[in-house]
Protein: dITP/XTP pyrophosphatase
Organism: Psychromonas marina
Amino acid sequence: MNKQWVLATGNKGKVKEMSELLNSFSIDVLPQSHFDVSEVAETGTTFVENAIIKARHAAKVTGLPAIADDSGLEVDFLSGQPGIYSSRFAGENATDQDNIDLLLSRLKGVGEAQRNARFQCVLVYMRHELDPTPIICQGTWEGTITDKENGENGFGYDPIFWVESDQCSSAQLTKQRKSELSHRGKALTLLVEKLKVQLGQ
Ligand SMILES: O=P(O)(O)OP(=O)(O)OP(=O)(O)OC[C@H]1O[C@@H](n2cnc3c(O)ncnc32)[C@H](O)[C@@H]1O
Ligand SMILES: [Mg+2]
């Protein structure tokens, strides 16, 4: 049987974006739902802390190595909000749509030149729950916030994140193109390189 790792996220969009690259190792990287890992409170004040909290929790529950993603959207006009609170911007049980609606309302009337934003992604790999040297990789993606939603792909804030290079929203990119450009794609490429070294591949 192949070795198993746990992907410490409850977000199906992240699982889709991360599975392919991670499964290029001879290891089965399975989402935490496969092991009945519950959600854990994200009590950190940085993406790094929250990613460690999630990876540690999943490693503890499963006894397996774990990879976690903590990510979010920083909007300059809002002094970096929603940041680490991106998934709960409109409240603890907010849907992606609730968060988009709130963000658009906060930016109502704000001109294009002031709508700069970036996605941040921190990935953490822990060999076990007490791993004192987790691997930490980061990626960012610059864009602007539109005033209307466009596209059906992706998740979260993708329909309102304008990608200048491709003249479309992030939700109008294919999965492959989003991975080439995105915060998560960049962090994942770095992580895979480091894991290859660690695994001697
Ligand atoms: O904590 P887990 O279980 O991984 O799932 P989550 O959705 O709660 O994930 P985060 O706590 O890291 O919150 C990140 C939020 O930032 C947003 N986000 C992150 N990456 C994104 C992307 O590629 N496209 C659109 N929105 C994204 C989206 O709203 C996410 O819910
Ligand atoms: Mg979360």
